[in-house]
Amino acid sequence: MIKTLASHIRGYIKASIATPVFMILEVVMEMLIPLLMSSMIDNGIKHSGGPDLGHIVLTGGLMLLCALVALFGGAMGGVFGAKASAGFARNLRTAMFENIQSFSFANIDRYSTAGLVTRMTTDVTNIQNAYQMILRICFRAPVSLIVAMTITIMINAKLASIYIVAVAFLAVVMFFLIRKTHKYFTQVFEKYDELNASVQENVNSIRVVKAFVREHHEITKFEKATLNLYILFVKAEKMFVAVSPLMMITIYASIIAISWFGANMIVGDELTVGEMTSMLAYCMNILMNLMMIAFIFIMVTMSLASGRRIAQVLNEKATITSPENPDFDVPDGSIDFENVSFSYSEKSERPVLSNINLHIKSGETIGIVGGTGSSKTSLINLIGRLYDVSEGCVKVGGKDVRSYDLEVLRDKVSVVLQKNVLFSGTILDNLRWGNENATEEECVQACRLACADEFIRDFPDGYNTKIEQGGSNVSGGQKQRLCIARALLKKPLILILDDSTSAVDTATDAKIRRAFAEEIPNTTKLIISQRISSVEGADRIVVMENGEINSVGTHEELMKSCKIYSETYVAQTVGAGDFDKKGEK
């Protein structure tokens, strides 16, 4: 974990080195002040021949100079510390985001969206704060502590032994504290994930929440998540609060002990008044530095849990990558499934897809139908390598998809998924996701093919209409047609429509299919649908059932040979029905 995180300090190494250097400069200057104070008292104020004004002024001037240099060191340490920690946090967020972009669907399935958001926000902020504390306090406090202890031993070793006992006692307390609280902070960030998931789900589905009047239920669920977080934080904080009285008792006990034994030593001429004054000054310095170290331990304990979660994402390797010597040429849009089986997890009892053999010619229009859970989407996800097969192989253009460069393959395979997503920006901005260099004329032509041009022109700003987050200001059918147009702009060899006209009326659906047949005849088209009317005119129709191919043929052939298909067609024609609920004769 430490190695993974440390590798992302690059670019801010100079600031990371400068911070402790300036903090040590501050410490050195602060340590000189009590020594100068001792000299001022013993050799200036209590001078045997009367007060030595020259020595007092000189020593006072040196003390002022030390204070100014210490102030400069502390200020510069703060500036460089902020720069180093903020830069470190920036690198971590960038690295995580870049790595997440390389994830396959299998990688993404291992994390919740809320969990990834928490890692990139709360967890990185914890690491940022801890790193700044380490650079500033973790160098300053121990150095200050060591220097102060060394000087006190030099002044009077017997009296300095009081500090050694105090330091040893507090070190033992902090050791047991860290062991106890680490487990609580590990659980805290898991609860943060649950809290963020609750917020995200509620905001994304706020229209459904209001439609079903479930606000009270959602508030109760959120309150439960915050309560769990509260309980864990209270448990952890109680442990730290318990340390504060122990720290104060130790500090005051040390001061009392120094005062008592020091006074006796002054009476016995073993210690001067100046030395006693400096010992008390160093006493506060030593014990305050101990409190700083305790605070560092608290921050580090919190950040350890965050660090592990961040390192987990950074070390996650994409399960699907381009081969060492990838193929950059996709000859055509032919697709071959050869003895394909697929499971989302190796632990699955049975595969999602079993023994799939299917050969599709370039330019063919293939309909894929079947009930919910028949693995239609799983089948088409293998074509663009969103997942890899468990057995067998999938070929595009006569070559195994695993031999292609991923970007080249996915650029030739355009998918309009079940869940249509539009991004904030204009309609043109969204369309150019398909081709960032597309002209406005090309965008308009794609929208005509997708039957989207007419409704776009009805907007006051036309193609420059702003799309709100998630496309909330357009209807489901409009969103689907914009996504189809976006996919067409890629000019793909293979176009996959995964139930992507479900929110479009039958007449518009027919227009889209007719436009595809006329305008992009050489593009292989795979249309997944529950509606038989959407695939009726396809060159061939694949009927899926329980992860296997039940039948393949034209509409007329399947009406005669496939009972599932014919019953569903009758049910959809005569009355409501689909592949999940067969019609009854």
Structure report:
By secondary structure, the protein is of the alpha/beta class. It contains 18 helices and twelve strands. The chain has helices at 2-6, 13-45, 53-102, 105-108, 113-155, 157-204, 206-211, 215-267, 273-314, 376-381, 406-412, 427-431, 440-449, 453-458, 476-488, 506-519, 555-561, 563-574; strands spanning 335-342, 353-360, 365-370, 391-396, 399-400, 413-416, 425-426, 466-467, 494-498, 524-528, 540-545, 548-553. The strands form three sheets. The chain has a six-stranded mixed β-sheet. The longest helix has 53 residues, at 215-267. It starts with a helix and ends in an 11-residue tail after the last helix. The mean pLDDT is 84.
Please describe the structure with a list of short key phrases separated by commas or semicolons.
18 helices; elongated; 12 strands; 62% helix; alpha/beta; 585 residues
SSE blueprint and pairings:
Layout: H1 2-6, H2 13-45, H3 53-102, H4 105-108, H5 113-155, H6 157-204, H7 206-211, H8 215-267, H9 273-314, E1 335-342, E2 353-360, E3 365-370, H10 376-381, E4 391-396, E5 399-400, H11 406-412, E6 413-416, E7 425-426, H12 427-431, H13 440-449, H14 453-458, E8 466-467, H15 476-488, E9 494-498, H16 506-519, E10 524-528, E11 540-545, E12 548-553, H17 555-561, H18 563-574
Parallel strand pairs: 3-10, 3-11, 6-9, 9-10
Antiparallel strand pairs: 1-2, 1-4, 4-5, 7-8, 11-12
Helix pairs in contact: 2-3, 2-5, 2-9, 3-5, 5-6, 5-9, 6-8, 6-9, 8-9, 13-15, 17-18
